[in-house]
């Protein structure tokens, strides 16, 4: 996985203006979460991005919790 800076993570939606991001733990989670997030919402296309595991998804959650952008952080209980 590519490491992103905090500002790179929280500002990703500024560079991809026609997309909303759903961050998931890993590649194996993409198809599962695609059921819950539509391909498009209000003209924004869904971009599901794996981040590399449960420790990384926690980092994304903490960074984006107070950020006003087009993001979702999805993870399961395992």
Attribute tags:
single chain, alpha/beta, 78 residues, 23% strand, 4 strands, 32% helix, four-stranded mixed beta sheet
- Give the termini distance in whole angstroms: 20 Å
Unreliable stretches (pLDDT < 50, length at least 5) are none
Structural class by secondary-structure content: alpha/beta
Anisotropy-based shape: globular
SSE string, helices as H and strands as E: HHEHEEHE
The radius of gyration computed from the alpha-carbon positions, rounded to a whole number of angstroms, is 12 Å
Q: Total number of β-strand segments?
A: 4
Give the integer mean of the pLDDT values. 82
Strand content: 15-25%
Q: Can you give me a brief rundown of this structure?
A:
This protein is of the alpha/beta class. Strand 2 (40-41) and strand 3 (44-50) form a beta hairpin. It is globular, with a radius of gyration of 12 Å.
Task: Describe this entry's structure for a reader.
With 78 residues, this protein is an alpha/beta fold. Helices cover 32% and strands 23% of the residues. It is built from 4 helices and 4 strands; from the N terminus they run ααβαββαβ. The chain has helices at 6-10, 12-15, 30-34, 54-64, and strands spanning 19-24, 40-41, 44-50, 71-73. It has a 4-stranded mixed sheet. Strand 2 (40-41) and strand 3 form a beta hairpin. The longest helix has 11 residues, at 54-64. The mean pLDDT is 82.
Show the helix and strand layout:
Layout: H1 6-10, H2 12-15, E1 19-24, H3 30-34, E2 40-41, E3 44-50, H4 54-64, E4 71-73
Parallel strand pairs: 1-3, 1-4
Antiparallel strand pairs: 2-3
